[in-house]
Specification:
The complex is a heterodimer. In chain A, 0% of the residues lie in helices and 54% in strands. Chain A is built from no helices and eleven strands. In chain A, strand 7 and strand 8 form a beta hairpin. Chain B is mainly beta. In chain B, strands 2, 4, 5, 6, 9, 10 and 11 form a seven-stranded mixed β-sheet that branches. Chains A and B meet through strand 4, strand 5 and strand 10 of A and strand 4, strand 5 and strand 10 of B.
């Protein structure tokens, strides 16, 4: 089955700096890659996603890039703010079958003042 | 904006007891899921449900687990005989077309 690796496990950046979180997946048939933000004790919240026919997608301060050849995708957050502090999870799935999401192990992002 | 809702927010039960976790997916969504998250760990898939039947289940979802959509709005997860290792946060999720999955707020299950 699908396996998703995520790095780093923790990331500390100063406010205003950029943060990059990287994921790799194992199943070359995966074609949908969402990113979730989870604040302490809260639900995972979908913040951005990318489909396999696109190499990059941007939404204000967040962007996601996908390299299908390398089976690698990344989350980029620019101009980080304290409210960006949370755990971020990448995930992958096979769409068309509405199949399960396979999650990475999470990255705890801390934005310091 | 419509959201997935779940009840209860916290359930404490004794080992061996049955629990039912309830979810109301977003109304026009067609695909429903249960995931669980042990404290401090990643989110793990349990089961997916479409057209009134299970589409896929993980190895965690053994004979002690069952799901049901008893009416047009509720989606339930039953654990027949809870074990200590079932203690986790259980999330329900739904999606309309199989892409964006939206999660509920979760039920924290504590088995003592």
């Amino acid at each position: 089955g699908e396996n998703v690796e995520q790095h780093p496990s923790t990331l500390s950046v100063q406010e205003g700096d950029s943060a990059v979180i990287k994921c790799t997946y194992s199943d070359s048939a995966s074609n949908y890659f969402p990113w979730y933000k989870q604040e302490l004790g809260k639900r995972p919240q979908l913040i951005i996603d990318i489909r396999s026919n696109v190499g990059e997608k941007k939404d204000q301060r967040i962007a996601v890039t996908l390299n299908k050849t390398a089976k690698h995708f990344s989350l980029h957050i620019t101009e980080t703010q304290p409210e960006d502090s949370a755990v971020y999870f990448c995930a992958a799935n096979l769409t068309g079958t509405a199949s399960k999401l396979t999650f990475g192990t999470g990255t705890r992002l801390q934005v310091t003042l | 904006e419509p959201e997935v809702t779940q009840t209860p927010s916290h359930q404490v039960t004794q080992m061996g007891q049955e629990v039912i976790l309830r979810c109301v997916p977003i109304s026009n969504h067609l695909y429903f899921y249960w995931y669980r998250q042990i404290l401090g760990q990643k989110v793990e898939f349990l089961v997916s449900f479409y057209n009134n039947e299970i589409s896929e289940k993980s190895e965690i979802f053994d004979d002690q687990f069952s799901v049901e959509r008893p009416d047009g709005s509720n989606f339930t997860l039953k654990i027949r005989s809870t074990k200590l290792e079932d203690s986790a946060m259980y999330f329900c999720a739904s999606t309309q077309q199989g892409y964006e999955q939206y999660f509920g707020p979760g039920t924290r299950l504590t088995v003592t």
